Amino acid sequence: MGIVLVVMSALSLAAAITSRGEHTTLTISIVMSIIAGLCAHSCLPKLRDTFLKANLSGRDLLKRDKPLLPETMGLPVAIIYLITLFLFIPFPFINWFEGANLVHEDDPTVGTFPYNKLGEILSAILAIQSMILLGFADDVLDVRWRYKVWFPAIAGIPLMIFYYTNKGVTYVMMPVQLRPYVGDLVDLGPLYYVYMAMLIIFCTHSINILAGINGIEAGQSVVIGVSVICNDLLYIFNNPDRASVEAHLFSLYFIIPFVGVTCALLWHNWFPARLFVGDTFCYFAGMTLAVVGILGHFSKTLLLFFLPQIFNFVYSCPQLFRLVECPRHRMPRLNDQGLLQCSTVRPNDKKPMGKLGNIALKLLRALGLLKVFEPTESIPLQQEQSHPSPMLDVVKQEEPQISSSSPTASTPSAAAVNTFTPTKKELEFTHQEDTPTPRSYLDATVVPTLLEGMKLLASERPSDPLAFLGHFLLSRSNEGKQQP
């Protein structure tokens, strides 16, 4: 069956090359992407033993028997993707190889070979290739977060240099609601390059931190990639703006092969996984998506496709910035029944949690996004599952046991039960006949916690960029209190 698909793809590629049409190059890209996906699907099982012999492997902790699986299998997929792009490079410029002059004799600006487009493709490939190399180094050397957080910015330097030398735009289009006040466009100048670096860092690491479950890394990449393809297709047909068409065609040339090879990887990484993708794939996927968003000039639209990753990043900030204890692997745990349960964290006794960490816990608990357990109460923790909402738990802040909510679990982690034998007493917070409205509940819980956190941030970290927001919120709060 695989041979038949390869032959059909080869025939389709030959037909696309010999045909003539407005979007012939796009057809060639689609056919090459199908071939790349088939190659990746066929090669991954054959490379399994090679990676195991190289000690690039890990235990699947979410299975009963904890099988040993090959890791860093995103590397072969990334290599196939790069080879596909290398072979595709001539096709967007095929018309220039059929008799057109590289430089027009009378007017150098007419009929000149589009070196800027070639440079755009090469700089994008160089950035992706650099990120793959750094991702593989992280898989092999297990680089610490304080260092590897800057890897995407380093890999994105070729892209930003080309963007600057090619006189890339540094303005952003404002939302319709703000245009009467600031205009349609706002020029950010040098800040736009800071924005580009931050976007590259976010896209890369947001894929990496939303991980730990079979298929989630490749799955979210496929969803975002397909969303980008749908967005690009809206701009290339019946669009009179040629510059916009070329920008989105460039995006399609990179994202279609990416979706092709990632689907092949997802096939083998889907539950029950036969391999792990590794940090190499996460970095490769994030950089590819960032590249098409930046050079395709739709970075703000790209962020809309990253909304789940943005939520996960904000939710993870207390652990990422070490306000709350952060485990080595933040993922669910397997209970005795073979079901996944929410991950739990016990605070480090040697390094007590600070005030900002306690405020973060109180805020997330008030929003119902986590549960905090006290190990000195009267009802066993196993009975916790009978409570319908985490808002019913009032918690003291000395040595709490933290459990983040998870859609795959409805009971606390078995690790929390085995670590100690906590008990739990019923809270003063009970349902009454006059149930408070959501607004009154937020005013009584979330708002005071936010104000307390902003006050602490403004006093203890005045140089922090968020300290300005803290001063602003405190001043508005004081104005509200002074009004009769």
UniProtKB/TrEMBL annotation:
InterPro entries: Dpy-30_motif, DPY30_SDC1_DD, Glycosyl_transferase_4, GPT
Keywords carried by this UniProt record: Endoplasmic reticulum, Glycosyltransferase, Magnesium, Membrane, Metal-binding, Nucleus, Signal, Transferase, Transmembrane, Transmembrane helix
GO MF annotation: an example: metal ion binding
Catalytic reaction equation(s): a di-trans,poly-cis-dolichyl phosphate + UDP-N-acetyl-alpha-D-glucosamine = an N-acetyl-alpha-D-glucosaminyl-diphospho-di-trans,poly-cis-dolichol + UMP
Matching Pfam families: Dpy-30, Glycos_transf_4
One Gene Ontology CC term in the entry: UDP-N-acetylglucosamine transferase complex
Membrane-related topology note: Multi-pass membrane protein
Family recorded in the similarity comment: Belongs to the glycosyltransferase 4 family.
Function text: UDP-N-acetylglucosamine--dolichyl-phosphate N-acetylglucosaminephosphotransferase that operates in the biosynthetic pathway of dolichol-linked oligosaccharides, the glycan precursors employed in protein asparagine (N)-glycosylation. The assembly of dolichol-linked oligosaccharides begins on the cytosolic side of the endoplasmic reticulum membrane and finishes in its lumen. The sequential addition of sugars to dolichol pyrophosphate produces dolichol-linked oligosaccharides containing fourteen sugars, including two GlcNAcs, nine mannoses and three glucoses.
Protein name: UDP-N-acetylglucosamine--dolichyl-phosphate N-acetylglucosaminephosphotransferase
Species, as recorded: Mucor ambiguus
